[in-house]
Amino acid sequence: MKRPGRRARAHGASLALSPAEEARVEALTVAMALAPGVYARNRMFDLFANVGVQRAKSRAATLRGIVRHLGRASSLVLALALEGGGFVLRYEIPVMSLSRVVELSRVELATLRVLASRAGAPCMSADDEDRALVDTSLARLLDAGGDTGNLARAARNSSAPPPSPAE
Known about the structure:
Layout: H1 19-34, H2 45-48, H3 51-70, E1 74-80, E2 87-93, E3 98-104, H4 106-119, H5 128-144, H6 146-159
Antiparallel strand pairs: 1-2, 2-3
Helix pairs in contact: 1-3, 1-4, 1-5, 1-6, 3-4, 4-5, 5-6
């Protein structure tokens, strides 16, 4: 029996993506995390019909959610994952009785650090390597052009550090 409020999984959603498609999904994740409101699903329906784009949107929402949690998080632990070369982030929010474990790729971790730095979270600060990784991911989308190129341009503009005041 189908539970109310649950959508059925899209047909073919479990199909594996090629390495090029995986890189595109990761780049879209970066763009959607840095500039979440740039493209509405209703205006870009064809783009959002793609399973990879749906996954990128979900991962971007996860990254933005983590940034909101960082202000209250305790017991923050970042470890290298044994398999796949990714990272595992663990944290707790005792007030909410929340314990969370998230697996992140290197690019997702860099994006999380950029977002956290922008939000002023002192527990995760971005360095030049993180910013370079984010810029490289956004450059993949810029090279692709089209709707994803526009999304990458908007994300790059929103992730740039604010200009220093002229003296």
